[in-house]
From TrEMBL:
Protein name: Uncharacterized protein
Superkingdom, natural source: Eukaryota
Region (Disordered): 1-27
Biological source species: Ensete ventricosum (Abyssinian banana)
């Protein structure tokens, strides 16, 4: 992933004049450091293939960052890095497909162990209409 995801961000303290203090909840001006902090945290979450909701929830819970501020920074990152985020969303779809496949594979193993608890390998028997699936 590109280390500097945003070159010169249009999200500046002037563009985002006030916000909540990230730890105390009080309203104050948003600094460049606040924006950079949230951007860096978002980039770390992207390395873990989190979706936007997971990032917002994680930063809200762990770093006490206002969800609307995280969403604003995410939106600006997406606007300035369309190609990256298009590819990233495809990776998220692939990640979800892999998770689903693994879940189905685990279920298949459970079903096979239930059908043949002895640990005997299940091998298909050609032209065997009424044979037990646990013998070979």
């Amino acid at each position: 992933m590109d280390r500097a995801l945003v070159k010169n961000s249009a999200l500046s303290p002037r563009g985002c004049s006030s916000g909540r203090d990230m730890s105390s909840g009080e309203v104050r001006k948003v600094s460049r450091q606040d924006i950079q902090l949230v951007q860096n945290l978002i980039e770390r979450c992207l390395q873990l293939y989190m979706n936007q909701k997971e990032v917002v929830d994680t930063l809200s819970f762990q770093a006490k960052i206002e969800p609307s501020f995280t969403e604003l920074v995410w939106q600006k990152l997406e606007e300035e890095n369309r190609e990256f985020f298009e590819a990233y969303h495809i990776r998220l779809i692939l990640k979800n497909q892999i998770l689903l496949f693994n879940m189905l594979l685990e279920k298949q193993v459970e079903l096979m162990q239930t059908a043949c608890p002895s640990g005997v390998a299940i091998l298909p028997i050609p032209n065997a209409s009424n044979s037990s699936p646990c013998i070979f």
